[in-house]
Design goal:
With about 220 residues, the chain is mainly alpha-helical. It has two domains: about 100 residues, Endonuclease Iii, domain 2 (Orthogonal Bundle), CATH 1.10.1670.10; about 100 residues, Endonuclease III, domain 1. It has twelve helices and no strands. The chain is elongated, with a radius of gyration of 19 Å. It catalyses: 2'-deoxyribonucleotide-(2'-deoxyribose 5'-phosphate)-2'-deoxyribonucleotide-DNA = a 3'-end 2'-deoxyribonucleotide-(2,3-dehydro-2,3-deoxyribose 5'-phosphate)-DNA + a 5'-end 5'-phospho-2'-deoxyribonucleoside-DNA + H(+). GO terms for molecular function: 4 iron, 4 sulfur cluster binding; class I DNA-(apurinic or apyrimidinic site) endonuclease activity; DNA binding; DNA N-glycosylase activity; metal ion binding. Its cofactor is [4Fe-4S] cluster. Pfam families: HHH, HhH-GPD.
């Protein structure tokens, strides 16, 4: 099977079985999404969704968040991983958007990564979800699934390298969907420790699955 055929098989499968994938973070606007994605680093979406309503009730917009103090915000996110850093990041992010971008969240990756708490992965998520830009956020799920399926070479050992390979081979208009396809597949089917290979509709082209079959003899 050629690389092009492998990608097409995966795309066709998800187009049929997950035609309209969405982030599992709950948000109403770009501000809320940005806060949620910053909080979601090394934390589950479920935990973030339990926490953000209290933040948005007290700080409904960037302006109010930019005036928050550490001692005011910290209690609202102390159940999130790395609460000290994330409290500082959220306040710093809001202040920088207000000061440098006139209160409007920028929508380019290069601008977003200038904000405290925003790395390339977060910037890719924001731009792809809000504006469906052809940007691919590579988290642990995308990294794992894309290698197991054989979409990217095993030798690629950085998220950026995987990101570039996926973008090169997925049609631009589908990249924002493919981001969710791979994340959700990794979250619920292609698990890190006990992947549900027998339930997976991608067995036919999956390098990881065929390697398992060979090992089992």
């Amino acid at each position: 099977m050629t690389k092009k055929e492998r990608y097409q098989f995966v795309i066709d499968y998800f187009q049929e079985h997950m035609p309209n994938p969405e982030t599992e973070l709950v948000y109403d606007n770009p501000y809320q999404l940005l806060v949620a994605v910053i909080l979601s680093a090394q934390c589950t979406d479920k935990r973030v969704n339990m926490t953000t309503p209290f933040i948005f009730e007290k700080y409904p917009d960037l302006f109010s968040l930019s005036h928050a103090t550490f001692d005011e915000l910290f209690p609202l996110i102390k159940s999130i991983s790395y609460p000290n850093n994330k409290t500082r990041h959220l306040i710093g992010m809001a202040q920088k958007v207000m000061q440098d971008y006139n209160g409007a969240i920028p929508m380019t990756v290069n601008e977003l990564i200038t904000l405290p708490g925003v790395g390339r992965k977060t910037a890719n998520v924001i731009t792809s979800v809000v504006e469906q830009q052809p940007n691919m956020a590579v988290d642990t799920h995308v990294f794992r699934v894309s290698k197991r399926l054989g979409l990217v070479p095993q030798k690629l050992n950085t998220p950026l390298a995987v990101e570039k390979e996926l973008i090169k081979n997925i049609p631009a208009e589908l990249i924002h969907k493919a981001h969710h396809w791979l994340i959700l597949h990794g979250r619920y089917t292609c698990l890190a420790r006990n992947p549900k290979c027998r339930e997976c509709g991608l067995q036919q082209i999956c390098i990881y699955f065929h390697r398992l079959l060979k090992q089992q003899g």
